[in-house]
């Protein structure tokens, strides 16, 4: 199967701090890869390097055949193919849900307003929020906000979606709706890279689990294997720890 | 001084009737002046605030020096320098030109600092979200950051605008016939303080609604923060 994401030997320094120390990650089309690891292991940094929100200090990153680190790459065009969902939603508070979703459609894809709104509405429909189109983020629950954020990303019809702890800022009773939206996205065939501690979701939906520690991929495999019979001591320790929660 | 003397000196209807046309022309000039210097200052402020987002020390240090200089100079000194000083360098400037330059430099520096604070008050995640959907740096600034920045510092912007409109009265020192200048003219020909009083009342009527609006905004922001 063709790989959508190919990251090889990715390094990232923050000053003297060596946060990614040669990470390799390939994600096949329609695959859902789960990334787990202790706090500070570099999971967010890795995701942010994939769409170049962070500038890697070394390595190669290709997404959908585009060399992300080539100076000649039009990064704004490349990013249209990579949706991203953040832990803290990052919705634009001065725009309605519809406005949030439609902004890039209008300014990046240059669609006329009516068409952009129509596509935005369809994206909101996919996360079951068509009836909240006119609401501002401040009038929505955390779970609804996160679903709007998902709609904002999928409205551009990306080739891959990156999720950075999409449910960890949510009250427990709101997690389900977001996971449901992600599950439906997965069923529609979206390629996804998910950083999360939702082990139940990982067991049910992930094709592969990647365990990171100290800026390196330590272990990877199918969820049954990584969760049930981890090979590495560090993985075992981490899984024992999160299972206790 | 009797009550009658007092009213005659400050509130003489006769004098007011005589001075009315000249006062009115002054008021019109003040309004025109405000309509020029406020947008000019905002323009300068937006430019400075945008420059302040550039990380390079080659931009940072000169910018800081610029803002510090023009916030330190008294606006009146700046204006007199532009009007009366520059001609010695062979640069003749009209009163309007001098006011435009002086206010652009002074007011721009203040608006710039306010807008910079506004931009910095917008969380980094906002730009990241926008950039992740393919918006360019400029688009993210225009559609995501600036609208929020302006909203976050709206009371400061209005408050500064209020000061700027009041400050247009310094244009009288370069003989620009705005409200204060005309009132002084009328006062000196009528030997009566009524024109000055009338000018004061005109400023008050003009600006009091803005002051009220500002109070309401400030109260609302305080309430929102609670
Ligand atoms: N902008 C930055 N400047 C300096 N250091 C940073 C920056 N961003 C991340 N780091 C550091 O890089 C390391 C990895 O951070 P990262 O956010 O990628 O970890 P993470 O695996 O996502 O952790 P968590 O589970 O807590 O989200 C941490 O030590 C962090 O402090
Ligand atoms: Mg993280």
UniProtKB/TrEMBL annotation, chain A:
Residues forming the ABC transporter domain are: 5-239
Gene3D superfamilies, alphabetized? P-loop containing nucleotide triphosphate hydrolases
Which GO terms of the molecular function aspect are on file? ABC-type amino acid transporter activity; ATP binding; ATP hydrolysis activity
InterPro entries from the xrefs? AAA+_ATPase, ABC_ATPase_HisP-typ, ABC_transporter-like_ATP-bd, ABC_transporter-like_CS, MetN_ABC_transporter-like, P-loop_NTPase
Report the SUPFAM superfamilies cross-referenced here.
Answer: P-loop containing nucleoside triphosphate hydrolases (SSF52540)
- Positions the record marks as coiled coil are none
Annotated keywords? ATP-binding, Nucleotide-binding, Transport
UniProt xrefs under PANTHER family: AMINO ACID IMPORT ATP-BINDING PROTEIN (PTHR43166), PHOSPHONATES IMPORT ATP-BINDING PROTEIN PHNC (PTHR43166:SF4)
Q: Which family does it belong to?
A: Belongs to the ABC transporter superfamily.
This chain's protein is named ABC transporter, ATP-binding protein (Cluster 3, basic aa/glutamine/opines)
Question: What is the scientific name of the source organism?
Answer: uncultured Acetobacteraceae bacterium
